[in-house]
Amino acid sequence: MGSSAPDVYVEEHNVIIAPGGTATRAWPVYWSAIWIGALSALAVGLIFGFIGTALGAHQVGKKIVHLHDLSFWGLVFSVAGAFFSFVVGGWVASSIAGFRRAEDAALHGAIAWLVAQPMFLVLAAFGAASFFGTWYSGLAGTPVWASSSSMTADPNAAIIARNSAIGAVTAMLIGLVGSCIGGWLASGEPMSLTYRRAKQERPERVRARAA
Amino acid sequence: MELFIIEGGSMAYVIMWLLGLPLSLIVLLWLVGIGR
Question: Would you say the pTM of this structure is higher than 0.90?
Fold first, then answer.
């Protein structure tokens, strides 16, 4: 060690020693963490939706005949709302479960996203989807108890249905990406795709290299 | 027996994912004609 080396060198390693076998291949699922993550995502999505509506970024009740009918700020709020609500949801789920591995953490983020989807559909069925922004309002179809005469009268109904579906699926997929990233963030592992963990060094390979 | 070594995450990666991903999505969607 040269003279420029620091006097004290602190290196933190968390070593988890797990026995092999099929039993340890199961991924434990922490449901209470997942529920809280999904509810957090809904709450943050609602906050983004209301702020967007209050600032005039989302136009409530507007039918999207052309995709460029969405305003630029509507686009910004929809993407940011869908992304960050589920980043928070995934982060909360993985933090409460306390994962240190990115895979388990991202899995729990994704499960929190899964749990939030039927919640969105139920809220949309009750007419609350537009609270989350223009894009999520596409989740609301025509309820079975509503008359379909107004739908058939609108010549743009098919185009509006297509654009609503595009908006809704985009928001959902952005949310899924966000939930995995939020979970990964909570695990504390470096968020680099080139990062490799010591797990991948199989003991037999290490022994073979040493021989 | 498996050995996991977990090191601390870097803030630069966190910022890159949390800012870069939504910003690039917004730009991409705007370029395909949404919100113009």
Answer: no
